[in-house]
Amino acid sequence: MDAHTDWVLEDLCLDPQAREPLHAQLATALRDRIRDRRLQPGEDLPTEVQLQSQLGISRSVARQAMSTLVAEGLVSRSRGRGSVVSPRGQHHRLAHRAAGLSSQIAETGVEVGTQVLSLDRMRRPAHAEQLAEAETVYLERLRSIDGLPAAYIRTWLPASLGEGLTSKELTDSSLHRILETRHAITLTGGSRQVRAVAADAELARLLGTRQGAPLLLLEGVTTASDGTVVEVFSTWHRGDLIAFDLDVEDSAPGAASAPERLPALQEAQQTAQRLAEQLHRLTR
């Protein structure tokens, strides 16, 4: 058995005594490996013979499991190549832009949905001390992209800005756009931090992935053009559906010289490398 097949099937156990048929168990296990990107688009899958030998199942069980994944569009078959993980579009978000996920993803023409899970008033939590008001409006929302859960968002707003918001108007809408229209403000800045984290049981349930799956956590504040902090937020993104892009700008009139820009460029590269290493550890 080759090393690639051993790695793909590592820790994969089927239970003949379970109520779920063996072919369904196998399809679920391989599906999970594809969705959490342990199996990457274009990567070869074990053959039916390899699955039969490694897992002690009949070839018909292996064939039925693969046929299920082909029907779902997760696996492609081609003559001479065998079964491979189908290409899967990943949506990109610019982490440094003030615009939220809804606005950025909607710009690409895909369908973005928003479900409001919670809308309450609460005292300002300790981590949201940047907000000027002691009373806040707290939001929990779930974003979907083309029907798939993609991001879970927690947001704290100053009570004066969040007053009067309803679940109905926030459903399938952009919070930023509502705030700008209602309060005649422009959201222009803020700060952002990105970390790779593993999904706990609750996040896995909300985002339709497995416990321990890699997520990208974006935390920060958004400010209006006058510097007022408008929101404090935390957003957990499914790592298999969304990627973060970091723009590195070239020099412009009045911009820093190349030597002066080098530390910032190195920092961006180091940030990207740290995220890649964290995601690699999470998917091992």
Structure, explained:
This protein has 284 residues and is of the alpha+beta class. The protein has two domains: 3-85, Arc Repressor Mutant, subunit A (Orthogonal Bundle); 91-247 and 257-283, Chorismate lyase-like (Chorismate lyase, 3-Layer(aba) Sandwich), CATH 3.40.1410.10. It has ten helices and ten strands. The protein has a six-stranded antiparallel sheet. A two-stranded antiparallel sheet has the order 1-2. A hairpin with a 4-residue loop joins strand 8 and strand 9. Helix 3 crosses helix 4 (59-71). The model has no long low-confidence stretch (mean pLDDT 81).
Which key terms come to mind for this protein?
single chain, 284 residues, alpha+beta, Arc Repressor Mutant, subunit A, Chorismate lyase, 2 domains, six-stranded antiparallel beta sheet, two-stranded antiparallel ribbon
What's this model, at a glance?
It is built from ten helices and ten strands. The chain is of the alpha+beta class. The model has no long low-confidence stretch (mean pLDDT 81).
Any idea what the shape is? elongated
CATH topology of the largest domain: Chorismate lyase
Number of strands: 10
Write down the domain tally. Answer: 2
CATH superfamily of the largest domain: Chorismate lyase-like
Strand content: 25-35%
Total number of helical segments? 10
The overall average pLDDT, rounded, is: 81
Give the strand order of the largest sheet, numbering strands 1, 2, ... along the chain.
Answer: 4-5-6-9-8-7
User: What is the radius of gyration computed over CA atoms, rounded to a whole number of angstroms?
Assistant: 23 Å
| CATH class assignment of the largest domain | Alpha Beta
| Largest sheet report | 6 strands, antiparallel
Distance between the termini: 20 Å
The unreliable regions are none
- Proportion in helices: 25-40%
Order of helices and strands: HHHHEEEHEEEHHHEHEEEH
Indicate the CATH architecture of the largest domain: 3-Layer(aba) Sandwich
Structural class: alpha+beta
Keywords: DNA-binding, Transcription, Transcription regulation
Protein name: GntR family transcriptional regulator
InterPro entries: Bact_HTH_transcr_reg, Chorismate_lyase_/UTRA_dom_sf, Tscrpt_reg_HTH_GntR, UTRA, WH-like_DNA-bd_sf, WH_DNA-bd_sf
Pfam family, one: UTRA
